[in-house]
Design a protein that fits this description.
The complex is a heterodimer of chains A (305) and B (459). Chain A is mainly alpha-helical. Chain A has helices at residues 5-32, 43-97, 104-125, 177-181, 196-209, 213-267, 271-297; strands spanning 128-129, 132-133, 162-166, 169-172. Chain A contains 7 helices and 4 strands, in the order H-H-H-E-E-E-E-H-H-H-H. Helix content of chain B is 60%, strand content 8%. The model of chain B has no long low-confidence stretch (mean pLDDT 93). Classes of the chains: A mainly alpha (305), B mainly alpha (459).
Chain lengths: 305, 459
């Protein structure tokens, strides 16, 4: 084959630009840390990266949802805990008040304490989390209880806050006032429209003021027990849900790690490999430059006299 | 008996021929880097011999050589290779144009990234999830609104950029068509000159080079067939259109009525192909956005705002307005009052209604993984679009590279045949130089012979 000067020049140019192109690609990968920067670099990786990104974003959202739900439920749990303490105190006072040795003045003093306690319980019932009342169903911006224990929230299916904690799985994250403060198992002596809980406390106060020891040690005490049972049941349910979410969250965190690993395997450059490749490419480029520079310099002209 | 001065004439022919050889060499060297130049060679032949009867051969005449002549100066070129190069160059132009356009489209979508449309979509769905948890919160509603606006703007922007590319490609088509027509006229012009020179019996080497170069350049833009005519001119046809016919230009390409069954290769066809693909992406994008608007609006219109009022039948019924990627907007009434976003699934006529009811927002958020469009989810539909773009762009790049290698090889072969080699020219130059010196020496010797004969013989 006949070789001309222009052919040599063309070949040198083409090879140099091909080398540079490869170096640029490697440099791009080195500086972004990503194997691909556009879909055509590798459509298969691109698709998987895109899919993983959207799966991970969805996953993150569910993780946040679970976080928020756990926060909410922990707040409810703390409120229910205080409620148990308050009920214990009420029961203690009821038992003490039923004692025949007490004078009316003593009982009046206890009744006074119960009134304060009722105020406390209403405060607990009006607990808010992040500015939202947790026992008022979906009416989170309405104070659920007034001073007389009248309920202004809602209940039932429509009183629930349904949050999605993983794809297609929604859970009710709240307990409404009816569930906690108005159990159907309890029948107060004088139902007056406000929720059972407060009726019972009211009964307790009335019985103390009237020195009605029979009621104190009888129906009121048993009602207080039933109220506490109910609160414990509700607490158990909240605790179980919370635990379930915490487990789900752990699993979700594991999955996220797996996804991240996968994503990293797909699209993160292996620094060692890339540096080696780059060094090799650099060597090739240098030798191409060297060869080109040498071969283009000479022709017969250099040796003719 | 032949003339006393015949030897001088023979030597003169030697001198002249060597000069022509040197001039041709000079021309080659001067054009070593001229694009499209074909090296030329002076063909030397021995001139007609002098026939003389002699004593030794009374019947058959003695043939005495009379020196050398340059019969012609011709280009060293392989016409078959030209055809091959042009076919492959056309294919290169086709893939190159397509690949360029597609990689530009890839830039528009800028995926995979943290700020492409897929990320905007994800933010949009997440905002609905957040709203489902905090339906009564105005800041959360505002965040959703902002994310929805970003999404709508993202679609608008992407679409308008695709439209810009489309406009650019259409303009490029016009420029290329003008270029082809102008080249056709230049070829017509060259044809006229070539016909004249050929008729005079000469070789219009440099004009032929120019014409071949024009054809090579034209091959990047379109496919065509070349027919050689007897008078040295050529006919150039693109499909059924005869762009050049000897010394005339009967037809012209028209950008508005190109027949794509005839223009099948070259940058013109490549751009057309890219335009078709671009249209496909635009359609997919519009399809996606249309369905998104439709699904979100259907759910939204059946919901209730933060005060428990039904949005159906009010200005706030639709979450999005518009019908495709070019005109998708968040309903301007909702933009003005985020409390009207219908997050609740029940109204205030229901005694159990509460502002924190986010069930309708949740339904909209769940569209994220619902099979809503072409049997897949919105996210996947969009990912498929990007994958398709990636695959097609990659194909374009790959084909361009392969075709480039092929064209390089063929060009190299042509260069090997037609290119100027300085080493070779220098060698030739020295050969001619010696030939010239030799002929001059013959003149000197004859001169001294004749001097003896004419001046020194005693009369």
């Amino acid at each position: 084959m006949r070789v001309t000067n222009k052919m040599i020049a063309n070949t040198v140019l083409y090879n140099l630009s091909a080398n540079l192109k490869r170096m640029q690609k490697l440099q791009d990968q080195m500086s972004t840390g990503n194997v691909i920067s556009k879909p055509s670099d590798d459509p298969v990786i691109a698709t998987r990266v895109l899919t993983l990104n959207s799966v991970m974003s969805q996953h993150d959202q569910y993780y946040t949802n679970m976080d928020d739900a756990i926060g909410w439920m922990e707040a409810a749990d703390a409120a229910l805990d205080s409620l148990c303490d308050a009920l214990d105190l009420a029961k203690e006072k009821a038992v003490y008040g039923a004692n025949d040795t007490l004078s009316q003045t003593d009982r009046d003093a206890i009744a006074e304490e119960i009134e304060q306690l009722t105020g406390n319980i209403i405060q607990i019932a009006n607990t808010s989390f992040g500015g939202r009342y947790i026992f008022s169903g979906t009416k989170t911006n309405t104070t659920p209880y007034d001073d007389n224990g009248n309920y202004y929230g809602n209940s039932g299916v429509d009183g629930k806050l349904y949050w999605e904690v993983s794809q297609g799985v929604t859970i009710a994250i709240n307990v409404d006032g009816d569930e906690v403060f108005n159990p159907s198992t309890v029948s107060p002596i004088t139902p007056d429209g406000s929720h059972t809980f407060f009726n019972v406390l009211h009964d307790l106060q009335t019985a103390l003021r009237n020195s009605d020891s029979d009621s104190l040690s009888g129906v009121i005490l048993s009602n207080l027990d039933k109220l506490k049972d109910n609160v414990l049941n509700v607490r158990a349910a909240v605790g179980a849900k919370c635990q379930r979410l915490e487990m789900a969250q752990k699993q979700s965190a594991n999955e996220t790690t797996n996804y991240e690993e996968l994503l990293s395997k797909l699209n993160d450059v292996d620094i060692a490999v890339i540096y080696t490749d780059f060094k090799m490419q650099e060597t090739v480029y240098r030798s191409a430059l060297n060869a080109g520079a040498n071969i283009m310099q000479y022709s017969l002209l250099d040796f003719l006299k | 008996m032949y003339s006393t001065f015949l030897g001088l004439e023979t030597a003169r022919r030697g001198l002249a021929t060597a000069r022509v050889g040197m001039d041709v060499t000079g021309h080659n060297v001067a054009n070593a880097n001229t694009t499209g130049y074909t090296r030329q060679r002076a063909n030397q032949v021995a001139s007609d011999p002098y026939t003389m009867p002699s004593m030794g051969k009374p019947v058959i005449a003695l043939q005495l050589g009379t020196g050398v002549l340059v019969s012609e100066i011709r280009r060293v070129r392989d016409n078959f290779l030209d055809g091959q190069i042009r076919t492959e160059t056309s294919k290169l132009g086709y893939w190159q144009a397509q690949s360029d356009a597609l990689s530009e489209i890839e830039t528009v979508f800028s995926e995979p990234s943290d700020d492409g449309l897929s990320a905007l979509l994800e933010n949009f769905w997440s905002s609905w999830q957040e709203l489902s948890k905090n339906a009564e919160s105005t800041p959360i509603r505002t965040a959703l609104l902002q994310n929805a606006i970003s999404l709508a703007n993202g679609f608008n922007h992407t679409y308008s950029q695709l439209e810009t590319i489309k406009g650019d490609l259409n303009q490029l088509t016009e420029i290329y068509v003008d270029d082809i027509n102008s080249k056709a006229r230049q070829i017509e012009d060259l044809n006229k000159q070539i016909i004249l020179i050929t008729a005079a019996g000469d070789q219009p080497n440099d004009l032929l080079d120019k014409r071949d170069l024009l054809l090579d350049e034209m091959a990047e833009l379109t496919n065509f067939t070349v027919t050689n005519l007897e008078d040295g001119s050529i006919q150039v046809q693109v499909g059924s259109l005869t762009l050049v016919d000897g010394a005339s230009c009967p037809d012209q390409l028209d950008a508005s009525s190109l027949d794509w069954t005839e223009v099948t290769s070259g940058a013109l066809a490549g751009i057309n192909q890219a335009l078709n693909k671009l249209q496909g992406y635009e359609d997919s994008l519009n399809n996606l956005v249309g369905e998104l608007i439709n699904q979100v609006n259907t759910l939204h219109s059946s919901g209730y705002d933060v005060d428990g009022n039904a949005v159906s039948g009010t200005d706030y019924e639709m979450f999005f307005t518009g019908s495709n990627a070019s005109d998708i907007k968040v309903n301007s009434y909702i933009e003005g009052d985020v409390t009207k976003i219908a997050a609740s699934s029940i109204g205030n006529t229901d005694p159990n209604w509460g502002p924190a009811n986010g069930n309708n927002a949740l339904l909209i958020a769940q569209l994220q993984y619902a099979t809503t469009i072409d049997g897949t989810t919105f996210d996947n539909y969009f990912n498929n679009l990007i994958t398709k773009l990636g695959v097609e762009s990659q194909e374009g790049e790959r084909m361009t590279e392969n075709q480039q290698v092929l064209v390089n090889q063929l060009t190299s072969r042509r260069e090997s045949i037609s290119g100027v080699s300085l080493d070779e020219e220098m060698t030739n130059l020295i050969q001619y130089q010696y030939a010239y010196q030799g002929a001059a020496r013959v003149v000197t010797v004859l001169d001294s012979l004749l001097d003896t004969l004419i001046n020194r013989m005693a009369v």
